[in-house]
């Protein structure tokens, strides 16, 4: 290598496009600022809650920009191939000697800074990830260890005073436009701490009123004593799934839960916070398009005794466990600062088996850089199994069995004990195989055992999300679908249906309650055996009684109200589940390549799949009535019950797959004249037009899926998945008379079991 060709000390930065995406090129930092290339940095603000002050640092006199001026608590470039959160943590450690865990950092916004300084020689086009660290009190200034080449001093200043200094463009402070993007920092702090307790309590009360409390029980007299004992252990195992789920939502979520529960008795507002949190299992409201109803200011206070230099009489740093206001799309399954392009780049470096693992249901994706940072700080991290890529990439894969080992070992033990107790051979087989799967991460045998279950106690436990797509159904429906024959599946497996009374649920059951699910998700089993469907009849009955009936009384014309009945509602729910299994699943693209609908439609898949299951379910009901497989009396009632059901599902919000899918169906049928709005603001079904409209929408959706046409899916959803005027009218009426949006179940049998266990 020629001398001077590469200087290993020179920091390289990733060059970005004007909208902040990586170009794949990296350049030395000096060249980036000389040429005005777009790049990324982090800003970290330390805020003391009790004094409402921000920490500022004075930049060292030797800095190449803004030398000697007061600036952000800590900031720095994100080096090439480095990541945002790790950079934020490292900068604090290097510049100020502060060691903070990742749950201290809340990303509050991204700020684009475009400016030219130093007589045109330093061009700064910088995307800044802005983080807030919320401490209770100011950190003693003598606790900091300042990096002399970067920082010459630190001080605390009231955020209001700092804002006014910036507004006046005080020459001692690095300028930020406090009327522009950077106003967000001050606005967020202001809103967070000037809360009006009364208005906040009223809002939470209103959100709680969206749920009707329903007690769900079941008849246990048919169970043997051994099965009752096994049931006790199963309920306890289910509560462990709750623990895992809280962690999967966001890494500081378990701390938040414990804190809110512990402080629920402190005031009426604290009680309401805990009640609404308990329904959502997170700080984001499921029924309000995942809008946050809490902020980091409501969160748990944690104490760090070794975050900085020891100072006499100072017990350590108390901070709030942070969470972002927008719900993170990757939850805690992926690093919070990972984007799709980084994931795809890493995935493309893996072998085929490793790719399956990376996109599989039973793994989490983590960062090596974060693991290495934690290891260097805490020296006690458990070794990471990385069986999935060269270390040129920062991401790696961890199986559930390792990530949640502490919880799954306990759950496995309980299932083995329950398996030893039960008298049912198929339940015994299921429980032992599921207990083994928790520790091996291979769920194949236990999923087969679940499908073969023939027992009075029905258990679905493990890493499942309900409402996953699958391939099963009825051959007769598949062959008669309103879809060109070339797209129809040849081999369809019938799905066994189990109707049960729900006795207890835990884990990924938050906000709106599911009335049915089909499992497993494992595509090997789906291909060989199809899936099994479970219908929760007591949940459906509660929703019909507390929600659908009152909706019908307000929104449906008098003469059609009598047609809304539970049988139609429940039969359509069964049909909806069956129809997840028919229609296109594995498809052949126009270029001859094999793919799946899910892969082609990506983030649009869920909403379209829900709409398909619904509308094709309605089509299927009519088909089965015409085949004399269902009573003729269902014909009219199923359409009117469906119309009332549209208003029920749209209330879940248009961010949610069911709500999006339902708005699409309602607006299509309304446009085709199948649904009519009357002057008294009630609705009815036009029976002469509804069949044709149902069939045309079924054909439209099925064809888009069969062709894997994402553009057509996007256009269809843009046009019809919206809050149209007729929908607004109906929802306003329901708001006025306070019809609940969903139910929140209580489980007396399980509660009794759990109380005995304490």
TrEMBL record:
Residues 37-179 form the Nudix hydrolase domain. It comes from the Eukaryota. It holds the Pfam family NUDIX. The keyword Phosphoprotein does not apply. PROSITE patterns: NUDIX. Keywords: Hydrolase, Metal-binding. One of its GO terms (molecular function) is hydrolase activity. CDD domains: NUDIX_Hydrolase. This is Nudix hydrolase 3 isoform X2. It comes from Ziziphus jujuba (Chinese jujube). The lineage of its organism: Eukaryota, Viridiplantae, Streptophyta, Embryophyta, Tracheophyta.
């Amino acid at each position: 290598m020629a001398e001077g060709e590469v200087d290993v000390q020179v920091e390289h930065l990733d060059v970005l496009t004007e909208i902040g995406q990586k170009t794949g090129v990296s350049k030395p930092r000096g060249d980036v600022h000389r040429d005005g290339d777009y790049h990324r940095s982090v800003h970290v603000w330390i805020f003391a809650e009790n004094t409402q002050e921000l920490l500022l640092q004075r930049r060292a006199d030797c800095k190449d920009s803004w030398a000697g001026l007061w600036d952000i608590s800590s900031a720095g470039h994100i080096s090439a191939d480095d990541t945002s959160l790790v950079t934020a943590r490292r900068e604090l450690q290097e510049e100020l000697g502060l060691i903070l865990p990742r749950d201290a950092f809340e990303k509050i916004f991204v700020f684009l800074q475009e400016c030219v300084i130093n007589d045109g020689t330093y061009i700064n086009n910088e995307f800044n990830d802005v983080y807030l660290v919320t401490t209770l009190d100011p950190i003693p200034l003598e606790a900091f260890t300042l990096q002399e080449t970067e920082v010459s001093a630190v001080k605390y200043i009231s955020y209001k005073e700092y804002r006014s200094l910036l507004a006046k463009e005080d020459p001692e402070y690095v300028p930020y436009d406090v009327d522009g993007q950077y106003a967000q920092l001050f606005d967020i702090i202001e809103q967070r701490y000037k809360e009006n307790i009364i208005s906040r309590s009223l809002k939470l009360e209103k959100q709680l009123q969206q749920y009707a409390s329903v007690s769900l029980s079941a008849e246990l007299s048919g169970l043997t004593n051994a099965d009752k004992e096994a049931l006790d252990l199963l309920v306890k195992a289910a509560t462990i799934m709750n623990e895992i789920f809280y962690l999967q939502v966001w890494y500081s979520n378990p701390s938040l839960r414990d804190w809110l529960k512990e402080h629920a008795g402190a005031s009426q507002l604290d009680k309401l916070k805990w009640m609404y949190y308990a329904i959502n299992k997170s700080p984001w409201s499921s029924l309000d398009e995942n809008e946050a109803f809490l902020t980091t200011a409501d969160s748990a206070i944690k104490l760090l005794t070794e975050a900085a230099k020891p100072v006499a009489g100072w017990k350590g740093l108390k901070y709030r466990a942070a969470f972002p206001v927008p719900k993170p799309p990757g939850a805690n399954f992926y690093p919070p600062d990972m984007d799709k392009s980084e994931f795809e780049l890493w995935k493309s470096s893996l072998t085929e088996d490793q790719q399956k693992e990376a996109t599989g249901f039973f793994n989490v994706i983590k960062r090596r850089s974060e693991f290495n940072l934690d290891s260097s700080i805490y020296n006690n991290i458990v070794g990471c199994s990385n069986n999935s890529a060269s270390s040129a990439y920062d991401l790696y894969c961890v199986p559930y069995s390792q990530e949640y080992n502490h919880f799954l070992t306990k759950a496995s033990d309980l299932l083995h004990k329950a398996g030893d107790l039960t008298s049912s051979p198929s339940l015994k087989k299921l429980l032992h195989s599921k207990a083994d799967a928790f520790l091996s991460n291979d769920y194949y045998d236990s999923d087969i055992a679940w499908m073969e279950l023939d027992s009075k106690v029905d258990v679905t436990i493990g890493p499942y999300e309900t409402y996953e797509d699958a391939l099963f159904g009825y051959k007769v429906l598949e062959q008669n679908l309103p879809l060109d024959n070339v797209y129809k599946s040849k081999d369809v497996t019938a799905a066994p249906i189990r109707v049960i009374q729900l006795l207890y649920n835990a884990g990924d059951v938050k906000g709106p309650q599911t009335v049915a699910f089909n499992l497993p998700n494992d595509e090997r089993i789906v291909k060989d055996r199809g899936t099994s469907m479970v219908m929760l009849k007591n949940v459906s009955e509660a929703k019909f009684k507390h929600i659908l009936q009152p909706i019908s009384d307000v929104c449906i014309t008098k003469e059609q109200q009598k047609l809304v009945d539970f049988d139609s509602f429940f039969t359509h729910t069964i049909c909806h589940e069956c129809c997840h299994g028919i229609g296109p699943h594995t498809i052949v693209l126009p270029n001859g390549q094999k793919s799946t609908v899910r892969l082609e439609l990506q983030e649009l898949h869920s909403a379209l799949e829900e709409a398909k299951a619904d509308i094709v379910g309605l089509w299927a009901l009519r088909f089965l009535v015409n085949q004399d497989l269902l009573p003729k009396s269902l014909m009219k009632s199923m359409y009117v019950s469906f119309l009332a059901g549209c208003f029920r599902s749209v209330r879940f919000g248009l961010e949610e797959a069911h709500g999006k899918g339902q708005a699409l169906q309602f607006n299509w049928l309304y446009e085709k004249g199948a649904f009519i709005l009357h002057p008294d603001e009630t609705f009815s079904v036009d029976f002469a037009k509804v069949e044709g409209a149902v069939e045309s929408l079924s054909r439209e959706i099925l064809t888009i899926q069969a062709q894997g046409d994402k553009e057509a899916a996007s256009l269809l959803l843009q046009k019809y998945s919206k809050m149209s005027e007729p929908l607004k009218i109906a929802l306003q009426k329901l708001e006025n008379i306070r019809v609940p949006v969903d139910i929140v179940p209580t489980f007396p049998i399980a509660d009794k079991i759990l109380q005995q266990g304490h």
